[in-house]
Every structure is written in C-alpha cells, then in structure tokens.
Amino acid sequence: MANIILSLHEASRTVNSGSNKVTILDDINLQVEEGEFISLMGPSGSGKSTLLNCIGMLDAFTDGEYAFLGQSVHRMKEKDRSKLYKEYIGFVFQAYHLIDELKVYENIETPLLYKGVKASERKAMVADMLDRFGVVGKKDLFPQQLSGGQQQLVGIMRALIGSPKLILADEPTGNLNSKQSTEIMELFAELNKEGATIIQATHSENNAAYGSRIVNLLDGKIVSQ
Q1: CATH code of 48's domain
Q2: 53-58: long-range contacts (C-beta < 8 A, 24 or more apart)?
Q3: Which residues span the domain enclosing 53?
Q4: What confidence tens digit (pLDDT) does each residue in 108-147 have?
C-alpha cells in the first residue's frame, strides 16, 4: 500500500474582489500517493497555479481540509505551515525566482540556510548537486549570466537540495525553448523514477504526458482525473 503524501477534501479558495466573493478553487478532492507524478492541466484561469500554491502552503485554502504527511495543514499556525513547507516541499517556478545578487552556488544553498544546516555540510551538499548536474563550472556565475534553461536547472537544484518529499513545479518550462523544455522534463521523469513525488501545472500536453496521472481543472473545479 503506497503512502498518501497529501489529501484534499472539499478544499476551496475564495478571495474578496471589491464587494464580491470570487471562488478560485471549488470543492477540490484529491489524494496524492508517494512516488506519483501528477500533471495539473486546464486553460489559463482554471486554478492550476492557485492549487499548486495552496498545496505548497504559499497560499491557504479558505474552506475544506488539507492533510500533508498526516498533519492537518488547515488547522496550523502560519509559522508551523512555513516550517513544514521548508522541510518537505521544493518549488520550481516558471520565472525561476532566482536571487539576482547571489551566485549560482549561493542560490542553491539558500534552502539549507533556512534549515540551519552547518556550513561544512552545506558546502558538501551544494558540491554534490553541482557535480550531479554537471554545472560545477558555473557555480560562481550570477543568474543573468546563464541561459533560461540553465537558470531553470539552478531553480530545480535549489528545490532538490533539501531532499524534499514533494516537488511542485508551476509551468516549469514556460520560458524555455523546446530543446530546453525536453531536457527539463526528462530530468523530472528521472527524479520521479528515483522516488520523488512531483506535481506540475502545465499548459503543454507534451509535458503533461510525462506524468503518471493527469488532473484536469476548469473554473476552479476538477473535471476529470
């Protein structure tokens, strides 16, 4: 029996827009098992990114239940949620979200600083990561000195450095050309084979096909999975 990494029960998110309440996510029911690779699909505005952000605890569901590794996220204080996120979740963004003033090496190291990992251990872990992805020669460059594909690779390395239980990827190839996109998706497929649980939001049917399950969203609802 595979372990359930997260489950959502009638999870919704509404926001106030002037005097109106706007429902962005509507009664989402979803269970994710360890080792799955899920592709969230749907047109722009269907709620994919919001769902990813809520699962990743960057936003919160306003109704319903969310359990992550058996813990009730919806009942947690902000600081406990933040701790859970930093400990177990790696996020890969479409716009990379690298820190321009930091070198590649320092960008990758950032999550370890949050976790309070000792300097000598950090050094070894970053060196391993640079070695694994074959970018040792780029460690002292700044993000703007890299191509889009290389920046996304650094974003993925940063997401992976803390050995997260769950990798969330929001349109991870949205700013890349097709060759770079394929390389990044092949990398996700490989990470998934190694046991990583991945949820990606994507417009691309090619990218979605890398997943083991496709969840279709429309107007904030899951319409098929």
Answers
A1: 3.40.50.300
A2: 53/170, 54/11, 54/13, 54/25, 55/6, 55/8, 55/166, 55/168, 55/199, 56/85, 56/89, 56/91, 56/168, 57/81, 57/82, 57/84, 57/85, 57/89, 58/85, 58/91
A3: 37-58+84-224
A4: 999 888 888 899 999 999 998 898 888 889 999 999 999 8
